[in-house]
Amino acid sequence: MKLWCFGDSNTYGYDPRGFFGGRYDAPWPELLAEKTGHEVINDGKNGRMIPGREVEFLQFRRDAERYGADALIVMLGTNDLLNGATAGEAAARMEAFLSRCNMPHILLVGPQPMRRGAWVPDDGLVAASKALARRYSALAERPGIWFADAGEWDVELAYDGVHFTEEGHARFADGLAARLHEMEGRI
User: Fold this and answer.
1) Of 82, 16, 17, 9, whose CA–CA distance to 43 is shortest?
2) Structural domains in the chain, sorted by start
3) Gap between the Cα atoms of 155 and 173, Å rounded
4) Between 156 and which of 41, 96, 161, 168 could a Cys-Cys bridge form, CB atoms 3.0 to 4.6 Å apart?
């Protein structure tokens, strides 16, 4: 199976420890490929928000044709919250995005909730990030959409309260591999 991982810096594998950032050697998509034996495309981009503009949908469709993936794994919303969106607004954006994806199988992942840190100065963002997973879970009631909650996997976050540590990437890959295993019998 060919999996297309569409996400933000936590999919890309951003390493916040360096002055200019960097990338971990083995972010979760690469670890997922090792664990499952599936072909995995890491399409994580730093700063990516939930697509909403027509040009973003056009690019998504071009990439979908180019990749020819069997399933889409999408984990977005954290940057939307960091840029002022409420959990409800982010979920509405995600719903609009998913309605235009036209993929045979979609796994929507509720991002690991943020915690207080250098990028998360208040508890309001923490609460919004926890609420986002609950709202995403409701979207997964639509046919063809599956859901996983990264908040259940004890993903370790770095000092900034947003980005996964190396151990966090390993835990995320373990949790996602288990969820994919559950799904495979029903795909």
Assistant:
1) 9
2) 2-184 (3.40.50.1110)
3) 10
4) 168
Give the model confidence (pLDDT) of 35-93 as tens digits: 999 999 999 999 999 999 999 999 999 999 999 999 999 999 999 999 999 999 999 99
Q: For residue 162, with 0-12 CB atoms within 10 Å meaning exposed, 13-18 middle and 19 or more buried, which class applies?
A: buried
Cα–chain center distance at 31? 15
Query: What residues contact residue 147 under an 8 Å CB cut-off, 6+ apart?
Result: 107, 108, 109, 110, 136, 137, 139, 140
- 141-to-95, 107, 121, 149, 186 alpha-carbon distances in Å: 11, 12, 33, 14, 15
How does the average pLDDT of the chain come out, rounded?
A: 95
